[in-house]
Amino acid sequence: MAGRPVRPNGQSQASKVCQFKLVLLGESAVGKSSLVLRFVKGQFQEFQESTIGAAFLTQTVCLDDTTVKFEIWDTAGQERYHSLAPMYYRGAQAAIVVYDITNAETFGRAKTWVSELQRQASPNIVIALAGNKADLSANRAVEYEEAQAYADDNSLLFMETSAKTAMNVNDVFLAIAKKLPKNEPQAGTGATAAGRGGRGAVDLNQPTQASQSQCCGK
User: Which residues cross the membrane (predicted)?
Assistant: First the structure.
């Protein structure tokens, strides 16, 4: 079901809602849209068309007494869209930088994105590094230890994920949710251009398509 809240610990009701802008960055075809589709809808499509510009979706995560609402910007990975990226990560409280564990070049590109975020994004942004396509570990080109060491050196969250098998997909979003400051409810994060009112099916190929999730009630 689209937009179903993720409940890591089965709590029935959260008393506080915090809203955060999260952006996904990475080379084309590393699986950014597939990760979002898995997280938001619990689905996987073997053949995913490239994102044009960016797609917008929402999903909530319930943590103890807090509901964390993610406003997710899934950006296009093609080089021609790179100049648009600051528009999406500006003001973001969190970012997931994705690479393909079977493609060393995408790991190098991920490092470039991390450096750009560290220079230009919000000073307190929570950055997670996701080594996607872990189901293809037989064709691994980036060692887990190498990526973990890089993440440690740069104070990043790090997990290897598989959008295909769902391995660690919810976990990486949950880890981010736990690390974000939740002292005060967050104001809106400027996603009005994405058409907040949309419900129903999520088309990740359509720019700024919104999927509103429900909070922790049934």
Answer: none
b or e along 169-200 (b: 16 or more beta carbons within 10 Å of the residue's beta carbon)?
Answer: bbebbbbbbbebebeeebeebebeebeeebee
3-state secondary structure of 20: strand
Burial of residue 25 (CB within 10 Å: 0-12, 13-18, 19+) is: buried
More confident residue, 23 or 53: 23
Residue 69 DSSP class: E
* Closest C-alpha to 22, from 185, 189, 157: 189
The Cα 129–Cα 73 span in angstroms is 16
Encode pLDDT of 64-85 as tens digits.
889 999 999 998 866 666 788 8
**150-160 pLDDT per residue, tens:** 999 999 999 99
Measure the N-to-C terminal CA separation of the chain; round to a whole number of Å. 13
- Binned at pLDDT 50, 70 and 90, residue 185 comes out as very low
Q: Among 200, 216, 198, which residue's Cα sits nearest to residue 208?
A: 198
Q: How far apart are CA 40 and CA 72, in angstroms?
A: 10
Buried b (16+ CB within 10 A) or exposed e, 51-83: bebbbbbbbbbbbeebbbbbbbbbbbbeeebee
Mean pLDDT of the region 119-131: 97
145 contact partners, CB below 8 Å, separation of at least 6: none
Which among 152, 154, 153, 149 is positioned nearest to 118, based on CA atoms?
Answer: 154
